Amino acid sequence: MVGRTYRYMTAEPLYPFGFGLSYSHFEYSDLKLDKTQLRQGEAVHAIVTVKNTGEVVSDEVVQLYLTDVEASARTPISALKGFHRSRLEPGQQRTVAFTITPEMMSVVDENGDSRLEPGQFRVTIGGCSPGKRSTDLGAPQPVQATFIVQ
C-alpha cells in the first residue's frame, strides 16, 4: 500500500485526505489526554477544543489520526481513527471528545495477525490528514499529543 493511500504516502498530495474548503476558518487548541501512560488493553480519552474564527456559521469535521511511532511492523504514517462533525456559529467553540480503544492501537503484522505492542503513539487532531501541504492550503494547524503503552 506504500504510495497508494494517504496512510502510507510520503509525497505531498495535491489535496490531503479529508481536506475541504469551507466558508469559514477554524482553530484547534487544548488537546488533552486523560492519561499519557497506559497498560495494554486500556483505552485513552482525548478532548480538543475547536473554534470558528471566521465570520459565518459553518461545519467542521474534526478528525483524529493515530500514528504508532515504535511499531515492529510497517504501519500507516497516520490513520484516521475517528471524526466528529460540528456546526459552529462565528466565535463559537466546542469541546469534542474521542475514545482511542486498544483495537485502534493494534498493529497488523505480515501474517495478518492483529496485536497491541508497547510503545509510543502520536495523536493528531485537525481538519484533514496531517502534513505540510494541509497547512499550505489553508487548513487549520492541527494539535498533537503522545502517549505510551507499556
Can you offer a commentary on this structure?
With 150 residues, the chain is mostly beta strands. It has one domain: Immunoglobulin-like. It has a five-stranded mixed β-sheet, with no helix packed on it. Strands 1-3-6 form a three-stranded antiparallel β-sheet. A hairpin with a 5-residue loop joins β7 and β8. The longest helix is centred in the last third of the chain and has 5 residues. The radius of gyration is 16 Å and the shape is globular.
Condensed summary:
By secondary structure, the protein is mainly beta.
User: Which superfamily, in CATH terms, is the homologous superfamily?
Assistant: Immunoglobulins
CATH topology: Immunoglobulin-like
Total individual domains:
1
Helix content: under 10%
Unreliably modeled segments: none
SSE-based structural type: mainly beta
Proportion of beta-strand residues: 35-45%
- Overall radius of gyration: 16 Å
H/E element order: EEEEEEHEEEHE
- Strands of the biggest beta sheet: in what spatial order? 2-10-9-4-5
**What does the largest sheet look like?**
5 strands, mixed
In the CATH scheme, the class would be Mainly Beta
Query: What sort of overall outline do the alpha carbons produce when their principal axes are compared?
Result: globular
DSSP summary, beta strand count: 10
Distance N to C terminus: 29 Å
SS summary, helix count? 2
Mean of pLDDT = 92
CATH architecture: Sandwich
